[in-house]
Design goal:
The protein has 298 residues and is an alpha/beta fold. It is built from nine helices and 15 strands. Residues 277-298 are annotated as: Disordered.
């Protein structure tokens, strides 16, 4: 049976966020939902998977709160469970930039629908910025997009301080996986004096879902934070796996490298992997293979 995967977020003031944790967790568990939902004073963010009926029930439960009645979500499908358990976590931020004064509930940039995004990308006056982390950008991004080369979203403000100037970069277009990071990034950039800041509504996932491949300016695949690893146009499953040692997405070409050893190392971590970490990964892989042999032999 195909499972529905629902990605959702909303910036909204939730001073009672901690009180929502247990009722939400219990409701999800009662409907056999798996995934992770983050709650913070600034809103909600999460990805969950379950049956069609179960996902609909959880979305209705969330939208029964008047502050979340217009909560939007994006859907895809998975043949096997992308998550192993259900977690509802309390956080200071639903996406961490590390600056308490950045508040998307007070100001954000201009939303751009996927159907209008190409026009913005083709405008020579627009600086296009991928707000995702370097390992995500490495497997796919939009044509002409700048890569800030960040290891975490916390580094994005430093990139703006050193590489961008409101007087020089008068039109800026931001994008990310599902829309949440670029929404917060747009709020930050406006606070720094940037006047025209645009961001892709619904993120890359909505673009890949709605824009035909023949018209697309997307190149490569889009990294996602579940067991699918990556998706392509029309949200079809991608071709990447994940290195069990460093968490970097690995391609079929990476697997042909002498530095790749299943479950142990890949070209992205081979040279920095400590002997201790390597030994632990070898033992983990040995246990996995042993368990697999046992299940095959019944």
């Amino acid at each position: 049976m195909s499972l529905v995967v629902a990605a959702l977020y909303k910036f909204v003031s939730l001073p009672d966020f901690a009180e929502k944790q247990q009722p939400l967790l219990s409701f999800c568990q009662a409907h056999d939902i798996k995934g992770t939902i983050l709650l913070a004073p600034e809103g909600i963010n999460g990805t969950i998977a379950g049956s069609r009926q179960a996902i609909d029930s959880v979305l209705s439960f969330l939208r029964s709160d008047p502050r979340l009645e217009d909560l939007e979500h994006k859907e895809s499908h998975a043949e096997s469970p992308p998550f192993q358990r259900m977690k509802v976590r309390l956080k200071k931020e639903i996406v961490t930039i590390g600056l308490s004064e950045v508040n998307p509930n007070e100001q954000v940039g201009t939303y751009v629908d996927p159907k209008d995004w190409n026009t913005l990308l083709n405008d020579p006056e627009v600086t296009v910025i991928d707000t995702r982390n370097d390992y995500e950008v490495s497997i796919g991004t939009f044509q002409k997009a700048q890569n800030p080369n960040t290891k975490s979203f916390r580094e994005f403000p430093e990139y703006v301080f050193h590489q961008l100037d409101p007087k020089q970069h008068k039109k800026v277009a931001l994008f990310c996986t599902g829309g949440i990071r670029c929404e917060k990034a747009s709020s930050f950039m406006i606070s720094q004096g940037f006047k025209e800041v645009y961001h892709l509504k619904g993120g890359i996932l909505k673009y890949l879902e709605e824009v035909p491949e023949s018209e697309s300016l997307w190149e490569g695949e889009c990294f996602v934070f579940d067991e699918r690893i990556a998706v392509r146009h029309a949200l079809e499953p991608g071709t990447y796996d994940l290195c069990a040692s460093c968490g970097h997405p690995i391609s079929e070409a990476d697997k042909t490298s002498p530095q790749y050893e299943k479950g142990i190392s890949c070209p992205h971590c081979f040279e920095t992997l400590s002997e201790g970490k390597k030994e632990r990964q070898m033992e983990k892989q040995r246990q996995i293979e042993l368990a697999n042999r046992r299940s095959v032999n019944g």
